[in-house]
Amino acid sequence: MVNGLHGEQMLLGLAIGIVLLIFMVLKTKIQAFLALIITTVVIGVIGGMPLNTITLENGTKFGILQSITSGFGNTLSSIGIIIGFGVMLGAIFEETGAAKRMALCFLKVFGKNKEEEALAFTGFLVSIPIFCDSGFIILSPIAKAISKVTKKSLISLGVALAAGLVITHTMVPPTPGPLGVCGIFGVDVGQFILLALVLSIPMTIVAILYARKYIAKKLNWIVNENDELVEAQAGSVELGKEINLVSEN
Fold first, then answer.
1. Which of 53, 55, 132, 234 has the fewest CB atoms within 10 Å of its CB?
2. Could you state, in order of their start, the residue ranges of all structural domains in the chain?
3. Splitting the chain (249 residues) into consecutive groups of 10 residues, what average pLDDT does each group show?
């Protein structure tokens, strides 16, 4: 028991809060920030925390509202500037078309039959300054164009791209989630980036192999000449064709 709160009760509140947050984000149109605030209040109430701020015997202020404001302020003070610069860098990437140009560059570097690697590592880098969902929207037309030209499975190309985007977005600063972890636990951001890269690079390689060896065979859907997604017929796959993509500004 800490500050009059039972651990089991707090864990129950946390479990209910996670379910509630997922429901509000996926099934309703509630804005994500508001959903987080609502979830925080629900967790605190179920966990037994007082809604209003009270002062404990040792002089510590304690309460749901106080915890929200102090926690938000402490986190923002440690990572706010980095997030701000990250948002600006992400906007520059989107507006200038740098993400697409990076993808085209990787396609040339990796060469024929390595489109999964090119898309995955493009997403791996792009997702650091850009949110992964925005990066997927920006880069998915390139995956579609590759599928149309090479007759490779669009599903496998999309999985490789999504894996690269999601892995770095959830593990490598300056994306907000990892930065929040650094701020809360007082971890050095530079060391965190190095360790996260050590973990995320092998994960990306495994995702590429999964997309190529399994997804491409099980879900071999390609883009035809009419830009329609159709199931590839046996013998119709034309691997190794030259890719000639023109980036759109």
1. 234
2. 81-231
3. 64 90 87 87 84 66 76 67 68 73 82 87 85 82 84 89 92 83 83 91 93 87 78 54 47
